[in-house]
Amino acid sequence: MSKVYADKDGQYKRKDSVFRDFISSKPGSKFPPEANRYHLYVSLACPWAHRIMITRLLKGLTSIIGLSVVHWHMDTEGWRFLADGEECEAATIDHLYGVKRLSELYFKANPNYEGRYTVPVLWDTKTETIVNNESSELLRMLNTEFNHLIDPKYSKIDLYPSAFRTEIDALNDWIYPNINNGVYKSGFATKQEPYEKEVTALFEHLNKVEQILKEKHEAGEEFIVGNTLTEVDIRLYTTIVRFDPVYHQHFKCNLGMIRHDFPNLNKWMKNLYWNYEAFKSTTDFDHIKFHYTKSHSQINPFGITPLGPIPNIMEL
Ligand SMILES: N[C@@H](CCC(=O)N[C@@H](CS)C(=O)NCC(=O)O)C(=O)O
């Protein structure tokens, strides 16, 4: 029997990330910002890791923080890197140690580790440990802590501007549980009642963002907060771009599709994808579709990947 993520009530409960240190330039910091000291481990399929890939590009950090990309297939032992002679476009070996599995890095960091081996991971090559594996915190670190090491055209980009922090925090507070995690809570439910409750809440909150974006578009603006790209756009984009290709069918989030039923969310997503390289170049629909449909055998036992929707994202 493959893994079931729900508890006995049929509800999916996500576990908190456990490595929660911070890169900081404050005196005495255990993890000071330095070029080429830290390394990111990601999956191109994963919406949480995708947040960090977008941020790494937007902030011009590609030559400062290295990157290893796991294969899209996640089995009962978790994520693995590309094996010798194996082909999987955009996946890599582990560039630091050449290990086969992400779990080996978790055990290197803590031999008694007992949790799941999740991406994203920010690894410190100096102390050989995991600094942090929580995407919402990694996003904030990449936003501020390397600013003195990068070109001013990148350091001036602020994804969590102080003028909008209250508004951003308030949006994160309902977008995360109802939308980002809402698709997982719908898809991993193993009883009818929790599924219906979660999918209903998900669509109520998609309608709420649709309304916000309608007003923004009417005012000639393109982003969710203020008139500037913030972490709210990044955090929502990585869920919405997976919605029609995967969540609608695989996670049974099928009370509507972004392309047919949410014109303003669709317009906002297409704008980010087609007009911002950091979004388009980090969105890999093959990794996304293959990962979910061929890794969650409890949901899709034969691992058949549906052909549609075609296209994965509509033209502008
Ligand atoms: N709270 C974490 C969640 C990360 C997470 O759940 N990642 C999934 C992939 S989408 C993972 O690596 N799962 C591995 C597993 O469950 O074994 C974050 O936002 O960084």
TrEMBL record:
InterPro entries: Glutathione-S-Trfase_C-like, Glutathione-S-Trfase_C_sf, Glutathione_S-Trfase, Glutathione_S-Trfase_N, GST_Omega-like_C, GST_Omega/GSH, Thioredoxin-like_sf. It is found in: Cytoplasm. Residues 150-295 form the GST C-terminal domain. PROSITE patterns: GST_CTER (PS50405). Keywords: Cell wall biogenesis/degradation, Cytoplasm, Oxidoreductase, Transferase. Pfam families: GST_C_2, GST_N_2. Active as '1-Cys' thiol transferase against beta-hydroxyethyl disulfide (HED), as dehydroascorbate reductase and as dimethylarsinic acid reductase, while not active against the standard GST substrate 1-chloro-2,4-dinitrobenzene (CDNB). May be involved in cell wall organization and biogenesis. This is Glutathione S-transferase omega-like 2. It comes from [Candida] arabinofermentans NRRL YB-2248.
